[in-house]
Amino acid sequence: MIGDTFWRFQEENMELKMRKTDLGETLQWTDYMSLSFTQHVITETLRVGNIISGIMRKAVRDVEVKGHLIPKGWRVFMYFRSVHLDDMLYEDPCKFNPWRWKEKDMSTSSFTPFGGGLRLCPGLDLARLEASIFLHHLVTSFRWVAEEDHIVNFPTVRLKGGMPIRVTAKD
Fold it and tell me: Tens digit of pLDDT for each residue in 104-151?
């Protein structure tokens, strides 16, 4: 799966680079956002390894949630990872699978890396654009070799060795 994902991701970005180079044009916002598989990769990365692990809220009145009383004044921590890795919401949730976003709706309450509702992050589109630009240039202009490492999931997602990687420019 990872090999297929990488090749599809690289192919999509190389096609865009070649098309823009042949036309003598520079890349625009719409070009980056048109990279549909790249957007799926970004979405899946946010689902599996969200930077924000959760949010805390204070109950302003007594609230009942699924038979549990949350008294006024109590603080509740919404742990995003528990939602993003729920096997009732995502098939094989611990597996990195950007293909799942081809048909899945991102506007549901089960995908919350940028919050939701009135508290939706206003930088959502900018963050996606920045990730798209970085990934586009990484995959089209560089090659890399990553050393073996292990994922640590708690309290945040990170690589135990700090993600050792050697990057070199393509010829």
Answer: 776 667 888 887 788 888 999 899 999 999 999 999 999 989 888 887
- What is residue 171's three-state secondary structure? coil
Which structural domains are found in the chain, ordered by start? 2-169 (1.10.630.10)
* CA 5 – CA 35 distance, rounded (Å): 14
In this prediction, residues 149-162 reach a mean pLDDT of 79
Counting every residue written for the chain, the total comes to: 171
Pick from 108, 76, 61: which is nearest to 89 by CA? 108
d(CA 10, CA 122): 29
How many helices (H) and strands (E) the chain has is answered by: 5, 8
Rounded Cα distance, 28 and 164, in Å: 32
- CA atoms of 113 and 133, how far apart (whole Å): 19
Residue-wise DSSP of 100-144: GGGT--TTSTT--BTB-GGG--TTHHHHHHHHHHHHHHHHHHEEE
94 labeled binding residue: no
The model carries a pTM of 0.82
pLDDT grade, residue 40 (50/70/90)? very high
Please give the helix or strand (H or E) that residue 151 lies within, else none. strand 151-152
